[in-house]
Amino acid sequence: MFSFFRKKSPPPAVQPQVVESQAIAPQTAEAPATEPVSAPAAVAAPAPAANAAPAEAPATEAAEKKSWLARLKQGLSRTGSSIAGVFGYVKVDEALFEQLEDALLMADCGVTATQKILAGLRARVKSERIEDAAAVRTALAKVLADHLRALERTPQVPAAADEKPWVVMIAGVNGAGKTTSIGKITHHLSEGGHSVLLAAADTFRAAAREQLAVWGNRNQVSVVSQEGADPGAVVFDAVQSARAKGIDVVIADTAGRLPTQLHLMEELKKIARVCGKALDGAPHERWLVIDGNTGQNAVAQVKAFNEALQLTGLIVTKLDGTAKGGVLAAIASTCPVPVLFIGVGEQLQDLQPFSAEEFAGALTGA
């Protein structure tokens, strides 16, 4: 499913390490006065798994796709049930559109997106002379997919050796699922043959470093970490180490924070600047993890973090525990930062690339 990450066969596995980053004073992270010390990390991807015979691959991929769509539909069932319930109404009249408007607003699509979606649906119903409620639901799925298509984007890991490493900076509020999402993405990258190095830049919370180390061990990748160190210094060391080792990807986990905590938001900007000092153009990606349960508050988070970091993508988690899955429609209308991945569960397979068509179909039950 993460086919866009697949590039090469994984190298033989070695024992992952948690590497202690050099202790660097905060001001040094902003503009290092001395040559930074590369963390001596031995980076490894997992050993190659037993692959199915080539003739069986298409069937396996089809089964995985079907399984994912079933999980997505189940995960969005709380949102979709309220929308699908509207189409039990037999006649296609103004009452149906009024009920649908209420359902979209309750799903946290937001006023602007709801009005745009309904306007598009009315036009389609009129032009296609739809008179059946079930056909209206199919039309709604198409209109919603068109609305969400602005959020589609497929990130690509550069293949050229001189572009290594590809640096991804991850931000988000506490509890959004930031570190868990990093672990899942690392797994898929490693399975695709990419070497990965994790930077534990959440230096304020010991549990965060430990959690990232667990994911590092599970995925057979190394983690650059330093208790109490300046977050920018940890990221600087991680990028320098990755450059020296020829590692493909660096993923930096940052401390959870609310967008109203201005001093912490300034620190995020600083980490990004220090990252650029370690490698021109880094961080190449700035992703925000948002909890799908937060509804319209997620829109406010996207706006605030986008202003601070110029986000290149979103990861939306926990869509299986909410009736507010329509918030992606609100994001598309008000702050269309691409949605790269969505999560509908705790398993590795429950985080997958976002598809407007798949999401719209699951949300409407079409």
TrEMBL record:
<dbReference type="InterPro" id="IPR004390">
    <property type="entry name" value="SR_rcpt_FtsY"/>
</dbReference>
<dbReference type="InterPro" id="IPR027417">
    <property type="entry name" value="P-loop_NTPase"/>
</dbReference>
<dbReference type="Pfam" id="PF00448">
    <property type="entry name" value="SRP54"/>
</dbReference>
<feature type="domain" description="SRP54-type proteins GTP-binding">
    <location>
        <begin position="338"/>
        <end position="351"/>
    </location>
</feature>
<dbReference type="Pfam" id="PF02881">
    <property type="entry name" value="SRP54_N"/>
</dbReference>
<dbReference type="InterPro" id="IPR013822">
    <property type="entry name" value="Signal_recog_particl_SRP54_hlx"/>
</dbReference>
<comment type="subunit">
    <text>Part of the signal recognition particle protein translocation system, which is composed of SRP and FtsY. SRP is a ribonucleoprotein composed of Ffh and a 4.5S RNA molecule.</text>
</comment>
<keyword id="KW-0472">Membrane</keyword>
<keyword id="KW-0342">GTP-binding</keyword>
<feature type="binding site">
    <location>
        <begin position="172"/>
        <end position="179"/>
    </location>
    <ligand>
        <name>GTP</name>
    </ligand>
</feature>
<keyword id="KW-0378">Hydrolase</keyword>
<keyword id="KW-1003">Cell membrane</keyword>
<dbReference type="InterPro" id="IPR036225">
    <property type="entry name" value="SRP/SRP_N"/>
</dbReference>
<dbReference type="InterPro" id="IPR003593">
    <property type="entry name" value="AAA+_ATPase"/>
</dbReference>
<feature type="region of interest" description="Disordered">
    <location>
        <begin position="23"/>
        <end position="42"/>
    </location>
</feature>
<dbReference type="InterPro" id="IPR042101">
    <property type="entry name" value="SRP54_N_sf"/>
</dbReference>
<protein>
    <recommendedName>
        <fullName>Signal recognition particle receptor FtsY</fullName>
        <ecNumber>3.6.5.4</ecNumber>
    </recommendedName>
</protein>
<feature type="binding site">
    <location>
        <begin position="253"/>
        <end position="257"/>
    </location>
    <ligand>
        <name>GTP</name>
    </ligand>
</feature>
<feature type="binding site">
    <location>
        <begin position="317"/>
        <end position="320"/>
    </location>
    <ligand>
        <name>GTP</name>
    </ligand>
</feature>
<comment type="function">
    <text>Involved in targeting and insertion of nascent membrane proteins into the cytoplasmic membrane. Acts as a receptor for the complex formed by the signal recognition particle (SRP) and the ribosome-nascent chain (RNC). Interaction with SRP-RNC leads to the transfer of the RNC complex to the Sec translocase for insertion into the membrane, the hydrolysis of GTP by both Ffh and FtsY, and the dissociation of the SRP-FtsY complex into the individual components.</text>
</comment>
<keyword id="KW-0675">Receptor</keyword>
<keyword id="KW-0963">Cytoplasm</keyword>
<comment type="similarity">
    <text>Belongs to the GTP-binding SRP family. FtsY subfamily.</text>
</comment>
<dbReference type="InterPro" id="IPR000897">
    <property type="entry name" value="SRP54_GTPase_dom"/>
</dbReference>
<keyword id="KW-0547">Nucleotide-binding</keyword>
